[in-house]
Amino acid sequence: MPLKFGRLGVATKTYYVQKTGFPFYDACQLVGAMHLFFGSGASSLRDLRTHWELSGPVAGANPANYGERLKGKGLERVEQTTLVVLDELEVSRGEVEGFFEARPPKAEVLKKAKQEGVLRYLEPAWQMGARSPDAARYGALAFERGLPSKRPLPEILVATLGLTQAALAYGNGEVTTVLPVLESSVQPMTPFITFKQRYQHRAGGAISAVFAALGILADLGLRYRIQDFAFAYHGGRGFYYSGLLGLHRLCAAFAGVKEFAHEALGYLERTRSLEAGVPLDLARLLADFLKNPSMDTLAAMARAKARVLVDESLPVNVRGYVRAAASELLGTLVSIQEAMRMAEARQIPPPSEALVKALGEVFRGEREGAWIGAYIGLERADKPEKFYAEVAKILSRALARAEKERKWLAKNLKEAMDSLSSEEVLSAHDQRTFPAHKTAFLLRVLASMKYQPAKLEAVEAAQGEEA
Question: What is the pTM of this model?
Answer without folding.
Answer: 0.82
